[in-house]
Amino acid sequence: MPFFAIVVFWIGFAFPLPAEAAGKTGLKSAAARETIDWSSPEALIRALKHRDSRTRQRAAYALGSAEGEVPVRALVAALRDQDRYVRGNAANSLGRIGAVSAAEPLRVLLKDHDGWVRCAAVSALGQLRDTTSSAAVFRMLDDGDECVRREARSALVLMGRVSTSAVSAAMASRVPEVRRSAAAVMGEIASEDSIAALAISMADADPTVRKQAVISAARIRERSATGILLKALGDTDPDVRTAAAGALGRPGDERIFAPLTSALSDGHSGVRGAAAAALGDYGDRRSCDALLGAFSDNEPLVRVSAAGALGSLGCASAEKQLIASLSEEPAAEVRAGASAALGKLGGRKALKALKRSGRKDADPKVRESARNAFEALERRL
Question: How many domains does the chain divide into?
Answer without folding.
Answer: 4
